[in-house]
Amino acid sequence: MTTNSDPELSDGLKTFGAVAKALREAADLTQEEFALRVRFSAAYIAKIEQGKRFPPGNLPERAGEALGPVAGKVLAAAAKSLRRKSGLASWFLQWAGIEEEAITLYAYECRGIPGLLQPEGYIRAVFERNLPPLTDEQIERQTSARLERQTLLAEHPNTAFSFVIEQSLLERQLGGSAVTRELIDHLLNVGRRTNVEIQVMPLRQEDHAGFEGEMYLAESPDNKWFGYTEGHRSSALITTPNDVSVLLQRYGKLRSQALECRATVSLLERMRGAL
């Protein structure tokens, strides 16, 4: 993803996390034990307790099963204070949680290289061109956060990652030829992972299902699908089954229209050699 906003740790998220932690500790459960009972990863629960992730809607219900009905009601009441405006940072916090738990993750990008695939040089090139300008401290903080997200690819070997990216994003050479060489090398390296598929959409493609823009899709551990889209300082989490189904149909068509993985590798190697 190519978000330029720096999600802030709101007081509401910190408060919810503190309440969740207090209820867990009152039940004499470790984060690992609690995570197992509510069927989320321990890392995800840790970030919720730290106020770094928006809690999923079913957490209070699952917590009620694990900690008792009173605890469930307390968390449900705390969650009501987290009603969000449709701002990019807020939506991204929730999507980041969905992304971390996903067993399948799809991404189609026509604006910039997906965040999970960006090497450090490309990340810095993106943030250095942000408007309004970012301070050096903000660039460092956001670069570190994006690199941390990328550990998903290695830490979730059983999650199927699929990326379709436009060839034009590589032809653009954002940040210059050196950054583009690093980017292509990185894509070739990441694409060797057994759980990652990278496909390039060629410049010329008469049949193209992505003309309405970028899209992200994730399948949860209980096999529910979510969609996510972004615009200028705005974004949307898509949960309605009919709407998610439309995105899944479009993404399936995009995969069939893009270069298959071996052809993508050949193209990337030719582009790398031409730099």
UniProtKB/TrEMBL annotation:
InterPro entries: Cro/C1-type_HTH, DUF5753, Lambda_DNA-bd_dom_sf
Pfam families in alphabetical order: DUF5753, HTH_31
GO MF, any single term: DNA binding
Domain HTH cro/C1-type: from-to ranges: 21-55
PROSITE patterns (UniProt xref): HTH_CROC1
Entry protein name: Transcriptional regulator
Origin species: Streptomyces beijiangensis
Organism taxonomic ancestry: Bacteria, Bacillati, Actinomycetota, Actinomycetes, Kitasatosporales
